[in-house]
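If it is no trouble, might I ask you for a protein's amino acid sequence along with its backbone structure tokens?
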Amino acid sequence: MYDFAIIGGGIIGLSTAMALGKRYPTARILVLEKENRWAFHQTGNNSGVIHSGIYYKPGSFKAKFCRDGCQSMVEFCQEHGINHEVCGKVIVATEEKELPLLENLYQRGLENGIKIAKISAEEVKEIEPYVSCLAGIRVFSTGIADYKQVCQKYADLIDTQGGELRLNTKVEKIVETSQGQVLETNNGTFETGFLINCAGLHSDRVAKLGGVAPKAKIVPFRGEYYELVPEKRYLVKTLIYPVPNPNFPFLGVHFTRMIDGSIHAGPNAVLSLKREGYKKTDFDLRDFAEVMTYPGFWKLAAKHADEGFKEIIRSFSKAAFVHSLQKLIPEVQYEDVVPTHAGVRAQALMDDGKLVDDFLIIKGEKSIHVCNAPSPAATSSLEIGKAVVNQIK
């Protein structure tokens, strides 16, 4: 009999287990992950950015957890010798119509308590010599990290605390009992007094297995990336972002220097035809049918038809993708970029077609379900873990 069982071995599940071990040092804690290693899906395929929190609605979980998480993640990396760098980033306006949006973003950053500065096009070039823009914002606290290393350290610390970690263990059924829940898996049966669902791409399904209706469905969006060939890496020094379209739920194509020195360009965001669909050819009939028969998806698609069509074009046309990159760095040419790995974002979508734009944490009688934790969840992971544990009475 375990006191706590966590489903999901990504960065949120592991950070929650670690926070539980600190709060309840004598508790029996179990972490179940269906894959053969930690951070297999969203965490292991993300951009590696330590986000500042500039984009998020003031007062939201995302704004608070990201701002605090930006600091706590850097401190964690420093303490445990994990590869990271606080390199900062620039957000730039490339057209006149983007200047008011840049100003709005600057004011939001101030509201969120972020250390930022307005900079001219000339000052941008001092940081990123090859960027073409009209003006920019410098965000000092943004960084990069190796989140796979972070997750492995989380797992090591859980093990040291006495927690039990099980890979290759997929939860197939949850049976509620007077004492808690019985978890039936492909690798045995486990009983727990309290269940925490951190299943990411499958969090809505696990919530339903546990008798909780999340009122939102996970719709997978694949983020497709290119990377600069090694001889062109000099074009990017840190991180370069465009001003995001406030009416579109993604940040737009940008340049990110990874912790290994490579430069990734993207992502292009398109609907994935499989929840774990990292390739264009990946397809799962159940996953596809769920999205196609979900009214919320069609309402979302109708609202963002124009931008969605542009994303699809970029998905199939390298020339169109490169054209988007040239708005930021005109010197980038077709032969300068090659495809690299993609990631899949688990985005919760409501029946009315509205994206859940904040972290969504739902409480059951003897359970908690983290049903929306896309970016900046990795940055915020230590704060999310503590917040989940604080909800347990």
